[in-house]
Design a protein that fits this description.
Layout lengths: L4 E6 L3 H12 L1 H8 L3 E7 L15 E3 L2 H7 L4 E4 L6 H12 L4 E3 L2 H18 L3 E2 L10 H8 L5 E7 L2 H14 L6 H10 L8 H4 L2 H15 L9 E2 L7 H10 L1 E12 L2 E12 L11 E8 L3 E8 L3 H17 L23 E11 L4 H11 L4 E6 L7 E8 L2 E2 H12 L9 E5 L3
Parallel strand pairs: 1-2, 1-4, 2-3, 4-5, 5-6, 8-10, 10-17
Antiparallel strand pairs: 7-9, 7-11, 9-10, 11-12, 13-15, 13-16, 13-17, 14-15
Helix pairs in contact: 1-12, 2-12, 3-4, 4-5, 5-10, 7-8, 13-14
The protein binds NADPH dihydro-nicotinamide-adenine-dinucleotide phosphate and L-homoserine.
Length: 432
């Protein structure tokens, strides 16, 4: 067997410690598949004294991950610190500057600085690998960049944030009697190591948007463009809407969708109503899914654990095995990237669910539907629940396909109606 691949690991939290465990536990089979052993030789984290549940004896310790990236006696640097700037970015830049291959799970870094980092890696002639950055243990990057490379991809849809899917699944279960609060479930996701260091990145959709920007760059062969992604999170999703969605035959999921549209490439992350019988509606808990539609292959559905130590370490190790084998793919999948325009959200066309709390009195529905008529929004169905003269009742409207700008303009007028008592809930319906 040839010389081992030596690895320096920056960051020994959920994923870093998970990687050390995996590389030790499966050392033999990894060596067989990689053609040589993969051995961690150096590590860096902030607190040297912290018990990480994994022995660190014999490994060279660095307080400074940037110094480690530049100087450690290692073939590859793995960055598992996190964050789009600060030590994570400096570590990756230092490693590439020293012409060392880099493996990272850091989607924020790639979504924001992926163009410059890819240029640096390509100038240095070394791989910058990031399988773990999207959808945890699912080999989504490899699927798009290699397995589906011969296809024109028209659409990629994903459940890309395990924490949000976990929270929505628990809220759904609550409607069935399990009884969990949002804050409780989020705390549990943090404890299980699923959530980002700042969990608002999860619940506000930013983490899913980072991942979608990466998938869109690979799918459409264009430079990664996080700023083009329309982002909404799950804070506004209520138990009432989850229950009404069920009645209408839908499940609510936070989806990331990247597609070719009339005005260019559309990229959006927001809560969606998905028909209950669609495969993505059945993806629950910390599981993620990525659905790609290619012109020759048709629809490909990948599902697996999207977060946590084991699944994420599995994806990091897959990149290390590629590097040990000498496989080197262009960072963004193509040697030249096209600057396809981005379609703004205002040009999106689709169906909507609109839930209002209105005063139960004659003429209110006529006022609301009159506004929708004025903006050319056609109704598909309407439900009014309960009877409470002079008090608040929920009214649910679903629309046929219409343009987002028309729906938004109508909504602005509906909110201003005297009989509308609370900010409305607007959720897009995806029928695929
Ligand atoms: P953690 O917060 O658990 O771990 C971060 C690690 O980085 C800690 O060991 C910390 O040290 C170390 N660190 C922080 N700052 C410094 C510094 N200045 N110098 C040296 N070390 C530092 O994060 P995760 O393991 O959860 O995530 C790591 C990366 O993987 C992130 O980019 C994340 O987005 C990504 N990811 C995470 C997934 C998950 O399920 N957790 C899934 C997919 C991707 P110390 O321990 O001493 O504090
Ligand atoms: N915080 C992320 C999630 C980790 O919940 O999906 C995986 O990238």
């Amino acid at each position: 067997m040839t010389r081992p691949l030596s690895v320096a690991v920056a960051g020994l939290g959920t994923v870093g410690a998970g990687l050390l465990v995996l590389l030790r536990q499966n050392a033999e089979l990894i060596a067989a598949r990689a053609g040589r052993p993969i051995v961690v030789t150096a590590v860096s984290a902030r607190d040297r004294g912290r018990d990480r549940g994994v022995p660190l004896e014999g490994l060279r310790w660095y307080d400074d991950p940037v110094a480690m990236a530049a100087e450690a006696p290692a073939d590859v640097v793995v960055e598992l610190i996190g964050g789009s700037a600060g030590p994570a970015r400096a570590t990756v830049e230092a490693a590439l500057g020293a012409r060392r291959p880099v493996v990272t799970a850091n989607k924020a870094l790639l979504a924001l600085h992926g163009v410059a980092l890819a240029a640096q890696a390509e100038a240095a002639g070394v791989p910058l690998a990031y399988e773990a950055a999207v959808a945890g243990g699912i080999p989504a990057i490899k699927a798009l960049r290699e397995g589906l490379a011969a296809n024109r991809i028209d659409r990629v849809t994903g459940i890309l944030n395990g924490t949000c899917n976990y929270i929505l699944t628990c809220m759904q279960a609550e409607r069935q009697g399990a009884g969990r609060e949002f804050a409780d479930v989020l705390a549990e996701a943090q404890k299980l190591g699923y959530a980002e260091a700042d969990p608002s990145f999860d619940v506000d959709g930013i983490d899913a948007a980072h991942k979608l920007a990466i998938l869109a760059a690979l799918a459409f062969g264009r430079p990664v463009a996080f700023e083009a992604v329309h982002v909404e999170g799950i804070r506004g999703v209520s138990a009432l809407d989850i229950s009404l969605a069920r009645e209408l035959g839908y499940r609510i999921k936070l989806l990331g969708i990247a597609e070719r549209a009339e005005g260019g490439i559309a990229t959006r992350v927001h809560p969606c109503m998905v028909p209950v019988d669609h495969p993505i509606a059945k993806v629950d808990g910390v599981f993620n899914a990525v659905v790609a539609e290619g012109d020759f292959v048709g629809r490909v559905v990948l599902e697996g654990r999207g977060a946590g130590a084991g699944p994420t370490a599995s994806a990091v190790a897959a990149d290390l095995i590629d590097i040990a084998r000498g496989r080197h793919t262009p960072v963004w999948g193509a040697s030249t990237l096209s600057a396809a325009p981005a379609q703004p959200m205002s040009a999106h066309r689709g169906a909507y669910y609109l839930r209002l709390m209105v005063l139960d009195r004659p003429g209110v529905i006529a006022d609301v539907t009159g506004v929708l008529r004025d903006h050319g929004v056609s109704l598909e169905s309407m439900i009014q629940r309960g009877r409470a003269p002079g008090e608040a009742v929920p009214v649910v409207l679903t629309t046929h396909d219409c343009q987002e700008s028309a729906m938004r303009a109508a909504l602005q007028r509906i909110v201003a109606l005297e009989a509308v008592l609370e900010p409305p809930a607007l959720i897009r319906i995806e029928t695929f």
